[in-house]
Amino acid sequence: MHERVDRLPATLVTPDEDLEREFEARLVESSTLAFRVAFGVLRHREDAEDVAQEAFAKAYRSFRQLRDRARFRAWLVRMTWRLALDRVRTERRRSARELVFESDRPTTADDSTLARERAERLWAAIDELPEKLRLVVVLAGIEGHDMKEVSALLDVPEGTVKSRLFIARKRLRERLSWMVTNTPAR
Amino acid sequence: MDGHEHSGALRDTVLKDAALEREIESALAVDPSPEFIVRIRARVAAEPTPTMRWYSWRLVSVTTAIGAVAIAAWFVWPSARVEPLPTIGVSQTLPETSVVDATPKGEPARVLQAVHPDAPRMTRQQARIVPTLPEVLIPENEKRGFELLLEELHDGKDAAIVARAASRHDAPGPPWLDVQPVVIEPLHDVIVSQGEGQ
User: Fold this and answer.
1) Which terminus, N or C, of chain A has the lesser number of Cβ atoms within 10 Å?
2) Measured between alpha carbons, how far is A169 from A58 in angstroms, rounded to an integer?
3) pTM over cut 0.80
4) Which ipTM was obtained for this model?
5) pLDDT digit string (tens) for B144-160?
């Protein structure tokens, strides 16, 4: 009996501890997603990290309402996107953007220059898209999200995601026709 | 031939789409720095624990909403307010100093009921708050005349009433109304006469 009572505090978890533990789990699984969403807008690693960090701080403040995983991720994506757009608007003067292009292929000097140019053109084309289309393109491009996942993240029907993605890709193809025809096969 | 061309175009589109997807995915395949999560943890640790904040916020908003609805109902709902009508059903006994007896001699004085019989009676507390105003007694004949006037107005005889009133206006008034106009003399003569006296 005494043993059982002694063991009880160790097994009991206060609501606050439970909350902290859940938030930690969300942080681990969604931090890269938030960073990449911010990076899709800012294309600057440090800025993207700052924005994602701010989004997590806001999420923590409202975490009681965001305990559901799907709801948390959708909220986080929207919040990060909005914060990143706000930062772009307030820091338009920032001209030097860090372009990161990672590839598993061995790169030569020519290859790197070409890759940088391709990335620049790609982002320029994505930036020209309307916000709704841009968000769908970025989310679909992160971690290979499928339509269902993007629709859950945006809280819109799957058909809407499909049509937005179709229009966005069509516009990007038109803008980047030179690139897609010369894409090296992997 | 056409079918072959179409399938070729379709294949190109698919290839282009796939290539485009690859480009976008590789452009977004950027990982945060290793200390990214550590910095978020530090930032979150500095935040206050979201324990009861949400509940307290909800409590405040719900209380405010209920209060606002109650105030709105008070102003909008007419039956919620008690009009401070003077001497509504307080008592049939009249205060001695405030009674004006306009009844002709020989006729018993009557108190006219000023409110509808179904009107709610005031509580003792309300009656204490309402100041006692002097009650006016109306002679029976005047009351009857007023009631007739109201009946005529109700029956649509208002045009005839107006015509009758207009004809009465031309009739001469009672003799005690004939007052001679007051003549005001200029002050100049008075001042001159006073100066001469000095």
Assistant:
1) N
2) 33
3) no
4) 0.72
5) 888 888 887 777 666 66
